[in-house]
Amino acid sequence: QSLDSTLHYIHNDSDLSTNSSFSPEEERKSKVQDVVPQALLDQYLSMTDPSRAQTVDTEIAKHCAYSLPGVALTLGRQNWHCLKDTYETLASDMQWKVRRTLAFSIHELAVILGDQLTAGDLVPVFNGFLKDLDEVRIGVLKHLHDFLKLLHVDKRREYLYQLQEFLVTDNTRNWRFRAELAEQLILLLDLYSARDIYDYLRPVAFSLCADKVSSVRWISYKLVSEMVKKLYIASTSTFVVDLMNELVEKFCRCHKWSGRQTFVFICQSISEDDCLPMDQFA
């Protein structure tokens, strides 16, 4: 009965929209959404109340964070204002597991909300996650390409300066973090210009090629070969020639055998993937 009355109230809320005492902004915020029963949504939103979380279930905030993209998809971007405060509360939760859950799904939420809401409401949260614990940062790193491709070009370029920061982790033995960075950089090559690749992605790629862990290095060889291919296709010959000269100088003529071995593996990757015409390769 209470559910029926709630639905009846939702579908007969025309008096709210005709109330002239509300400004357009206040009206937007006060208007009751009509997608799901309001009582059900209120119940969900109340899960972030700290006192409730302590008395009911310490994991309740994590469950709430896990479900949030689904709730946002159901309500639609026009009703994002209903969830915005709850999302920001969860994003600043003291438990890293809650923040980690949101970090792993922020790219999905960006698709649901569209570019304007993403730029205004999600980018600040995303930036906060980039400076968080490694357990949280890995969530945004695993879907870095998925998130950045949804941003405008100017906004996307701002993150070029932060790529170096991913090389620094709380635990230096966390090699999977660097391996994931190499994987993401391969995807990011499609999002940036030849100059951006040469200026910002190249130094990170070279650093990863000299990593202490072989798994990271193997992915990095593929990254460098794809970088050569991208710069060659871009027809900015100076970049690809400069890059190849640096490969020779940095690795082929390295005084350590591991550096010279790296050069051979990069050459192998370049030739196998047809990244360059053979005369250019020679």
Automatic annotation (TrEMBL):
One annotated GO molecular function: protein phosphatase regulator activity
Highest taxon, organism lineage: Eukaryota
Keywords, sorted A to Z: Repeat
Keyword Repeat attached: yes
Gene Ontology CC entries for this record: cytoplasm
Disordered: annotated segments: 11-31
Entries under PANTHER family matching the protein: SERINE/THREONINE-PROTEIN PHOSPHATASE PP2A 65 KDA REGULATORY SUBUNIT, SERINE_THREONINE-PROTEIN PHOSPHATASE 4 REGULATORY SUBUNIT 1
Official protein name in the record: PP4R1 phosphatase
Organism the protein comes from: Irena cyanogastra
Gene responsible for this protein: Ppp4r1_3
